[in-house]
Design brief:
A 4-stranded antiparallel β-sheet has the order 1-2-3-7. Strands 4-6-5 form a 3-stranded antiparallel β-sheet. The protein starts with 7 loop residues before the first strand and ends with a helix. By secondary structure, the protein is α+β, with helices and mostly antiparallel strands. It is built from 7 helices and 7 strands.
Amino acid sequence: VCDSIDLKIIGELFHTYILAEGKQGMWLIDKHAAHERQIYNQLKSSGIESMAQYLFTPKMVVLSRTEKQTVLDNEELFRSIGFDTADFGGMSIVVRSAPNYIEFDDIPAVLSELAGKIIEHKSADVDLFDALLKSVACKSAIKAGMNSDIRELVKIAQAVLTSPDLKSCPHGRPTAIELTKQQIENMIK
């Protein structure tokens, strides 16, 4: 983490990485991973009580037979993180409420992912709330390949380089790497 915020944004590489010059060298910041960590930290600190919102239009979700059964068998667990679901026959469920940070169109993918986590662990002991936060943060974050405004790039870079809790995304990938001036000079010879 940068000891001071004396930072010059050079630009963006591949619409994915922020290039920044600091006092000691160059920073390469993964804008998706950094933004994802910021959102995850905000969600984690906001608590579960503000998570659920009833949907104006219930969402019909088609899942695999196993995923559907997992959601129905763990209805209380899903309710505890903001989902109100019911069997709709066949391989469908109806979702009447969802965590308020999830986009309407992302509900099927999030339910499928969370059911998959329970299936993978072969129990509901998985920290579903944490898995939900990670999923929501990932889906809400700036995506690689998206154009970003320079103000957005500056804000992300400053946050990453001044906050020790933003060193990695929720999945463990680094948010930034530094190449010192000396390392660059050694590489170029």
